[in-house]
Amino acid sequence: MDFTKPETVLNLQNIRDELIKMEDSIIFKFIERSHFSTCYGVYQIDNPHLTLGSDFHGSFLDWALMHLEITHSELRRFESPDQTPFFPDKLKRSILPSINYPKLLANYSNEVNYNDKIKRTYIDKMVPLISKIDKDDPNNYGSIASCDIECLQSLSRRIHFGKFVAEAKYQSNKPLYNTLIENKDVQGIMREITNSAVEAKILERLTTKAEVYGVDPTNSEGERRITPEYLVKIYKEFVIPITKEVEVEYLLRRLEDPN
Ligand SMILES: O=C(O)C(=O)C[C@]1(C(=O)O)C=C[C@@H](O)C=C1
Known about the structure:
It is built from ten helices and no strands. By secondary structure, it is mainly α. The protein has one domain: Orthogonal Bundle (Chorismate Mutase, subunit A). Helix 2 runs parallel beside helix 9, helix 6 crosses helix 7 and helix 8 packs across helix 10.
């Protein structure tokens, strides 16, 4: 997929192929995170044992992610249409010259940002499933926040790819979607974007991937690093539903941009 070539980006098959590739990076990032404990101290707002600066309000993870995003914004990361920041208000201007991407998505697309929800869901629902030990571990705060950032960035990219899916679907049947949008028919849009066969295939593939990637093949007695149950649960209950929320919100506003 090449973001300078709209015809490659707004092709539903290409988008689905890209979503399949992202499964692998998400799984391997979850495996990295599984080696550490849940570590609530990383997510505690204004953790009294840390000095994050008197004007900063948030968790250690927020602090680390915000500083990384500030630096990455200077490296042009958030100009790329597949990148969505967790701290859009803190970004700086890139020191690299802008790339002139062609218009791929509607002009309000940056406002469709589910990162707060993704971060909350990751901390509250996913970390307890991924991590095997439930305890705080102050010696590993830095490593854990680094793993969390990688997991969150991969989840965010995957879920916000829903905008490309939505745009491709919109382009393929404008009259149908225009009527649904004019009628603010959320359920109708949700019905239209849902493809149960594709969802079932994703869950089936994840089961196989978790079975294969989840064990060290050279160690028959090795502990499972990930299990199909939790991976399928994460996709079925969180990743796919939030992707669909992104698609619906994007489509509901689609007539704001007549192009
Ligand atoms: O592939 C699509 O058509 C999508 O809309 C993406 C996706 C997903 O999140 O993977 C979401 C909704 C569909 O029911 C199937 C899959």
